[in-house]
């Protein structure tokens, strides 16, 4: 027979609104869809637009196109992705500029009625009020700065508002978590002194520090060095799926303690332990082929080869599900708190996403699932974009403080 204490606890659980179940209405879901500013902090469709794809046309092999964004998405951080292959012969900056241009020219300028270029949190809010999608940029791969703070400043001036410190490759100043590495570049045990200078300069500029893709020690070095909150633009929880690029509970807690936010990646291996375990043998088989594709110089040939490789991998393993996304969000919230979780889909940058969430027009299904899980409308608004806006405001404020302090120091030094 259960004790009185257990009976009392059970009664509290039944009475608690968190655990109360109610039938979620279409009206509730529609209201959140209308009011929330859904911000996706990582989307790789730019790797297609830079090759000529028109984002306003159906994306039959990916997740991102304008018809499926409109009415659902508030802001998009388009990836200024610079592959490791561009490091050779110092082509990284050239590629970064091409990727920046595709956002400004092929997305925003080509579709001014639907997109507006944005660089601040307030501009995202303003775009939402105008029923437009705010287009922002984040560099993926710190090697894009070619070891130059001057280039970093140039990218900020062009509108870049976060930088992922590494990609799969360890660069000259930061260690990567990736499996595809150039062994000619030595490991640094985290960030080098110059790498810490990069983080400090990002703080001064008002550019968010992104630790998705970095080695665990690099994460802790960046967290210690940064005087502003940092983000994980497209990661998930290692306790749910021990994919190496996911974050441990200790990392999530540390990130939250300094005001940052982790953005949940929709890649199947990020989401599901079962998918990750079953995909590892296939990934090992495909890795050599992937590296060979990266060596192809002709853009059209490389694109065709990559599509063929992705097609050969598709359908062999059941994908992750909507429930896996909810489980990842729920774990992140329990570990880091409701104020430190967001969305970073990695759409068009991963080979597999849940079929129930394979584009932005499917987000009402996630909204419904989170409501059914016990999350409030305000909770969901925080996850969808409110938390990221808070971090952006904090990063912008820290930049103002640093510039003000520098100005005062200069003034007194001149006396």
Automatic annotation (TrEMBL):
Xref: Pfam families: Peptidase_M19
Spell out the molecular function terms from Gene Ontology.
metallodipeptidase activity
Q: Where is the signal peptide?
A: 1-20
Q: Name one GO biological process term.
A: proteolysis
- What is the native source organism of this protein? Granulicella aggregans
Chain segments annotated as coiled-coil in the UniProt record: none
Q: What is this protein called?
A: Membrane dipeptidase
Source domain of life is: Bacteria
Q: Which UniProt keywords apply?
A: Dipeptidase, Hydrolase, Protease, Signal
What's the top EC group for this one? hydrolase
User: Which Gene3D superfamilies does its entry note?
Assistant: Metal-dependent hydrolases
Enzyme Commission code(s) on record? 3.4.13.19
> Which PANTHER family does this UniProt record tie to the protein?
DIPEPTIDASE, MICROSOMAL DIPEPTIDASE
Q: Report the SUPFAM superfamilies cross-referenced here.
A: Metallo-dependent hydrolases
